[in-house]
Amino acid sequence: MRTLEIRRHAKRDPAADRLSEAGRAQAEDVGRSLQHSYDVIFVSPAQRAAETAAWMLRGKGAQLPPHAVIPGLAARDNDGSPLAMGGVLSALVDAVPEGGRGLAISHMPLIERGVLGLLARDIEPLRECEGVVLTKRDDESAVELEGELRLR
Q1: Looking at the domain 2-149, which fold is it?
Q2: Cα→Cα distances 103→13, 35, 65, 71, Å
Q3: In whole angstroms, what is the distance from residue 21 CA to residue 16 CA?
Q4: Domain limits of the chain?
Q5: What is the pLDDT of residues 46-89, one digit of tens each?
Q6: pLDDT by residue (tens digit) across 117-143?
Q7: pTM of the predicted structure, to 2 decimals
């Protein structure tokens, strides 16, 4: 089985492509609550996405595993349509090592569009650091929505 946790970035600085002080604290707090380790991390080209991953790992006390910047997570290499975003999410699930778990940091509404395009399922808009968990079992070619990651 392959598992991909895809989350929206933390609160951004309204004046720049980076996290605000509150966003750094938010991502670090989320990191403290993470139950899983990650075999691979994917981020959009936006600085705030990479910072979110870094602060989450800092909160967890984990080192950075193999990682990659994925332009499609920011809709730069596609049209941002549900089908295009669904294709990006499907490719990322396939890029997670067999038996592993990946973390991807992207943006709203791209995650919601990706779930719609991949699974024909609407989800409520995600707030900062919220996300979904997608799985693909060894014996199946279809990706499933395992659950939503909502903050309290």
Answers
A1: Rossmann fold (3.40.50)
A2: 22, 12, 10, 15
A3: 12
A4: 2-149
A5: 999 999 999 999 999 999 999 999 999 987 777 889 999 999 99
A6: 999 999 999 999 999 999 998 777 789
A7: 0.94
